[in-house]
Amino acid sequence: MDAIIRLEKVNKWFGPLHVLKEIDLAVAPGEVLVIIGPSGSGKSTLIRTINRLEPIQQGRIVVDGVELGDDQRSIEAIRREVGMVFQQFNLFPHMTILENVILAPTRVRRVPREQAIQKAMELLERVGIADQAHKYPAQLSGGQQQRAAIVRALAMEPKIMLFDEPTSALDPEMVGEVLDVMRGLARSGMTMLVVTHEMGFARDVADRVIFMDEGRIVEEGTPEAIFSRPQHERTRSFLHRILHH
Amino acid sequence: MRGPRFLPGGVLRRLRWILVAALLVLAGVAAWFLFFWALSVGVAGYLKAVQFTPAKVAFYADSIRKGAEVTLKLTVISSTAGLVLGLLAGISKLSRNPLFRLPATFYVWLVRGTPLLVQILFAYNGLPYLLGPLWDRLQPLGVPPIQDVLTDYWAAFIALSFNVGAYNAEVIRAGILAIPKGQWEAAQSLGLSQAQVMRHVVVPQAIRIVVPPLVNNVVALLKDSSLAYTIGLFELVMAGQRIISATFRPVPVYLAVAGVYLLLTTVMTFFTNWLERRLQLRGA
Ligand SMILES: Nc1ncnc2c1ncn2[C@@H]1O[C@H](COP(=O)(O)OP(=O)(O)OP(=O)(O)O)[C@@H](O)[C@H]1O
Ligand SMILES: [Mg+2]
Question: By C-alpha distance, which of B86, B150, B158 is closest to B120?
C-alpha cells in the first residue's frame, strides 16, 4: 500500500501536556478514516497536524510525498492539497458564499475568475445551495453554511479532506444534509479523515475506525470490528456511553 | 454587467476603480474650496454681527480661513502618514519576529508615554540638532539646509504623524486580535500565504472594527494640532491670537475659533457615522 498520509512516531505537547503519544498512522489514497474518542483525547490535534495547523515536536509526517517541516512554502504546498472543514464552519463573513469559494482558487491556484466561478457554481449546485451563492454566510442556515464550507475546501481540488466534527455545531435536523454531502464525497473516492460522534455515519462510510484516548491510538479496525467486537475496555465503555445517549 | 469582449474582466474592474478614485479626488478638491469659501463668508458675517471694524472684517475672516486651512491640511496629511505608521507598527507589534516586534513596541511605548507638546517641541527644536550632522553630509547632493526643511509646518507634521501613528497602532493591533482564530485557520488551510490571509481575510474584517476608533484619533489629532501654535505655526489658534492682539477682544474671537473646530469635528463625526453604516450594510 502506498500511503498518501504517513505519521511516524509523532509526539506533541501543549506546554507540559502530552497530547499526541507515539502516533503511527498510514492512510491509503481513497480511504475514509473515522476518528472517535472522548473529549480531550487529541482527535482534533491529530488531524490538525496533517495540514500543519499544529506543529509537532517529535516524529515525521509525510503528506502526498512531501515531508512536513518548518519551511513555509512546503507547508503552503501541502495545504493546497489538503482541504479542511471545521466544526464552526469558519466561512469568511465579509464575503458572499461565491466569493468565499473562489478566493483560494483565484489567489492561490491562479485560476481565471470566470473559470473559478463556473467551477464554484457547479460545486454549489452539487450540494444543493447554488441559489445561495450571492448571499453572505450569516444569511444561511447552519447546514447550508457547512455545505458551503465543504465546497470552499473542494474548490481547491484537494487530494485529502479533513473534517473536525463537521456536524457538532448543527441543529439536529441539519445534520443529515451535511452527512449526505460527505457520503457522496466518500463514494467519489476522496481520501477523508473525519472526527465525528456520528456513529451511524462511521458504520456506513468508514473503511477504518480509529479509537483514541489520552493522546494514543488505542484501537483501530473496520467499523464492524470496532463497533461489534471492541477489544479494549476503554473502547467498550466509550461506545457504551455514546451509543446509549 | 459585462464589458466589451476584448477587455478581460480584471482590467475593466481596475479601470472602474481608477475612474471612481479620480472622481472622488475631484469631488474632494471641489468640496474643500467650497467649504473654505463658505467658512470665510460665515466668519465675516459673524465678525460684522459682533461689530468688528467693518474695514477689517474681510481681512480677519480671511486670516481665520487661512488658519483653519492649515489646521485641516496638517490634520489630513498627518493622519494619512499616521495611518501608514499605525498599520506598520500595529502589525509589527503582533509579529513573532523580535526584529519587528521590539522596535514597534518601543515606538508605541515612547510616544504614548510622553506629552505631545514635548514631541512637537522636540521635532522643531531638537531634531535639527540630532539630524544636523547627518544632514550636512547630504549637502553636496544639493539638499537644502535642515532649517529650511524642518519648518514649523513640517516639524508639526512629523510630531503629529508619529503621535497619532502610535495610537493608531494600538487600535489596529486590537482590531486584528479581534478576528477569531478560526478565520486565520480557515484561510491558512486553503493554502493562502500569510500576506494573503492578512489582505483578504483579516484586514477587511478588522477595518470594520477599527474605523470608528481611528476616526476618533483623527478628531483628537485635529484638536491637538493646535499645540503647533507653540512652535509658531500659523494655524487656527494662532490666527485667533493675532486678531486678539490687534483688537483686544478675546471673547468673540475665541468663540469663533472654537466654533470652527466644532464645525470641523462635527463634519468628521457625521462622515464616520455614515461610513460605519456603509461598512455594516455589507455582510455580517
Ligand atoms: N492550543 C492549545 N493549547 C493548549 N492546550 C490545548 C490546545 N488545544 C488543545 N489543547 C488540549 O489538548 C488536549 C487535546 O485536545 P483536542 O482538541 O485535540 O481534543 P479532542 O479529542 O479534539 O476533543 P474534543 O472532542 O473536545 O474536540 C486537550 O486536553 C486540550 O485541552
Ligand atoms: Mg476536537
Answer: B158
A135 touches chain B (CB under 8 A): no
Point out which residues pair with A33 in neighbouring strands. A193, A208
Host H or E run for residue A110: none
User: What are phi and psi for residue A13, nearest 5 degrees?
Assistant: -125, 145
Q: Is B9 on the interface with A (CB under 8 A)?
A: yes
Q: List all residues 6 or more positions away from A37 whose beta carbon is below 8 Å from its beta carbon.
A: A43, A210, A211, A212, A213, A218, A238
The pLDDT, as a whole number, for residue B161 is 98
Ligand 2 centroid to residue A87 C-alpha, Å: 8
pLDDT at position B6 over 70: no
DSSP output for B176-242: HHTS-HHHHHHHHHTT--HHHIIIIIIHHHHHHHHHHHHHHHHHHHHHHGGGGGGGT--SHHHHHHH
User: A111-144 as b/e, with b when 16 or more CB fall inside 10 Å?
Assistant: beeeebbebbbebbebbebbebbebbbeebebbb
Whole-complex ipTM = 0.94
- Count the neighbouring beta carbons within 10 Å of the beta carbon of residue B162: 20
Looking at the DSSP bridge assignments, the partners of residue A7 are A25, A61
- All cell numbers assigned to B14: 481596475
A14 CB near ligand 1 (under 6 Å): yes
Residue B8's pLDDT is 62
A43 pocket-lining for ligand 1 (C-beta < 6 Å): yes
CA–CA dist A96, A90 (Å, integer): 13
Closest C-alpha to ligand 1, atom 31: A40
Q: What would the pLDDT profile of A40-79 be if each residue is shown by its tens digit? A: 999 999 999 999 999 999 999 999 999 998 888 889 999 9
**Other CB atoms within 10 A of residue A55 CB:** 13
From CA B269, how far away is CA B275, in angstroms rounded? Answer: 10
